[in-house]
């Protein structure tokens, strides 16, 4: 049986800046996180503010949630944003895309 789940959560942004690069980026603090799960493989796309240690924190959080990282790609999106794409294998338990996104949002908020 193949389990298929997809979730995208992004908070509304009241500042002019955002992931579209329409501003300076200084007001953009809420990450956009999209997760898709097929079987035991998770695909994540994260657009977040560029900060020291953000990638290490994200990878650590995913491993704490029982995922094994298969591939990671990080691309600067604007001067202040990163576009991070991660493919991971779900090793432990059944994790939904909604739970994964929610846990990553909490972890990213704690970094700021």
From TrEMBL:
Keyword entries, A-Z: Nucleus
Region (Disordered): 11-30
Compartments, record wording: Nucleus
Pfam families referenced in this protein's UniProt entry, alphabetically: bHLH-TF_ACT-like_plant (PF22754)
Stored PROSITE patterns: ACT
Assigned GO CC terms: nucleus
Signal sequence, start to end: none
Keyword Manganese annotated: no
UniProt keyword Transferase, yes or no: no
Domain ACT, chain residue ranges per copy: 43-112
Protein's UniProt name: ACT domain-containing protein
